[in-house]
């Protein structure tokens, strides 16, 4: 007896096979599933391209990460970066060479917000434009930057749905 159901996720395109097989055999059998039915795993982005939300940021000379107030985002696609600095929208270009990253110049809108939010946005945009390299791993995206005050890290989490649950 064999039963099989197939479902394709509209968000990720992942395929889920459900089923049961009843075998009558005196010899134990080990079945190897085809590659497309291998165990489901959470997809991990290994590319800079995508939508990212700032989780925290270190600022020289302070070693303790700053937690952002509001949504600071970065969307990387086709040599362009855009997003929210917490108050204003920004956009500009970026280039990569291996893990090296250059961002900018960035342009932004001129909406006024609370002083603390505006200062955070200024620090964020300066850090983005001082990017030197990036890394994408299971923890998300890290953009390393260096400016006249020292070195810091922008840590982002993915905004893209990466699994079925």
Q: Short summary of the structure?
A:
By secondary structure, this protein is mainly β.
The rounded distance between the terminal residues' Cα atoms is 30 Å
SS strand fraction: over 45%
Main sheet: strands, sense, barrel: 9 strands, antiparallel
CA radius of gyration: 22 Å
In the CATH hierarchy, what is the class of the domain at 50-158? Mainly Beta
What fraction, in percent, of the residue positions are helical?
Answer: under 10%
Summing up helix and strand content along with how strands pair, one would put the structural category as: mainly beta
Write down the CATH topology of the domain at 50-158.
Lipocalin
Order of helices and strands: EEEEEEEEHEEE
The parts where pLDDT drops under 50 for at least 5 residues are 1-5, 14-45
Number of helices: 1
Summed over residues and divided by their number, the pLDDT gives a mean of 78
CATH-level-2 architecture of the domain at 50-158: Beta Barrel
Q: How many extended strands? A: 11
The general outline is: globular
Describe this structure in words.
With 165 residues, the chain is mainly β. It has a domain at 50-158: Lipocalin (Beta Barrel). Helix content is 9%, strand content 49%. The chain is built from 1 helix and 11 strands. It has one helix spanning 115-129, and strands at residues 2-8, 15-21, 50-59, 62-66, 73-77, 80-84, 89-97, 100-108, 131-137, 140-147, 150-158. Strands 3, 4, 5, 6, 7, 8, 9, 10 and 11 form a 9-stranded antiparallel β-sheet that branches. A hairpin with a 2-residue loop joins strand 9 (131-137) and strand 10 (140-147). The longest helix has 15 residues, at 115-129.
């Amino acid at each position: 007896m064999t039963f099989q159901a197939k479902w394709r996720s509209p968000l990720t395109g992942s395929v889920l096979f459900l089923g049961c097989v009843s075998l009558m055999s005196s010899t134990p059998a080990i079945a190897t599933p085809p590659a497309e039915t291998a165990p489901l795993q959470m997809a991990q982005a290994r590319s800079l391209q995508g939508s990212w939300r700032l989780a925290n940021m270190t600022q020289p000379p302070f070693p303790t990460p700053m937690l952002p107030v509001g949504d600071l985002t970065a969307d990387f696609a086709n040599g362009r970066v855009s997003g929210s600095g917490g108050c204003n929208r920004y956009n500009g270009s970026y280039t990569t060479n291996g893990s090296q990253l250059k961002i900018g110049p960035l342009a932004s809108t001129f909406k006024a917000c609370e002083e603390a939010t505006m200062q955070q946005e200024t620090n964020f945009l300066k850090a983005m434009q001082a990017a030197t390299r990036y890394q994408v791993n299971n923890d998300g995206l890290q953009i390393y930057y260096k400016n006249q005050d020292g070195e810091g890290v922008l840590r982002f989490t993915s905004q893209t749905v990466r699994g079925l649950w």
